[in-house]
Amino acid sequence: MALVELEISTREHCEFLDITKEVALVVRKSRVTDGICVVYSPHTTAGITINENADPAVVRDMVMASSKIIRRDDPEFKHAEGNSNGHLKTSFFGVSETIIIEEGRLVLGSWQGIYFSEFDGPRKRRVLVKIIAG
């Protein structure tokens, strides 16, 4: 199947947007019943992660904790653009996830969702989805 591009608009400097429904739609449209789905962020200050999507407090905690661990205003940062924290968070969270497709559906745990992770917003972003039949 061809590469599918999703457009994402973020509103905050650091946020996690649940894109599970959008990725599941790509899988359904592909008509692949068994295979894998690769979700990829082609950005150096944004990533992809899988985590709980039932309780919104989990996302708030991820934003809060990652911002405490990697401060935006750390005086030690040398990167001229001022977004070193975004680069570091992206490396920690990662830029892709691979999800199994079985019987035409994403295989995710009961409470799992796929998140686009913004670390230098607000911005317009892209997410690339590739479905590979198995």
Map the helices and strands:
Elements lengths: L3 E6 L5 E4 L1 H11 L3 E7 L5 E7 L3 H14 L14 H10 L2 E7 L2 E2 L5 E7 L5 E10 L1
Antiparallel strand pairs: 1-8, 2-7, 3-5, 3-8, 4-7, 5-6
Describe the structure.
The chain is of the alpha+beta class. It has one domain (4-96, 107-133): YjbQ-like (Jelly Rolls, Sandwich). It is built from 3 helices and 8 strands, in the order ββαββααββββ. The protein has helices at residues 20-30, 56-69, 84-93; strands at 4-9, 15-18, 34-40, 46-52, 96-102, 105-106, 112-118, 124-133. It has a 5-stranded antiparallel β-sheet, covered by helices on one side. The radius of gyration is 16 Å and the shape is elongated. It starts with a strand and ends with a strand.
Percent helix range: 25-40%
Number of strands: 8
The count of domains is 1
Give the number of helices. Answer: 3
Sum up the overall morphology in one term.
elongated
- How is the largest sheet built, in terms of strand order? 1-8-3-5-6
Radius of gyration: 16 Å
CATH topology: the name is Jelly Rolls
Q: What is the strand content?
A: 35-45%
Main attributes of the structure:
Jelly Rolls; 37% strand; alpha+beta; three-stranded antiparallel β-sheet; 8 strands; 134 residues; 3 helices; five-stranded antiparallel β-sheet
Q: What's this, in brief?
A:
With 134 residues, the protein is of the alpha+beta class. The chain has a single domain, classed as Jelly Rolls, CATH 2.60.120. Helices cover 26% and strands 37% of the residues.
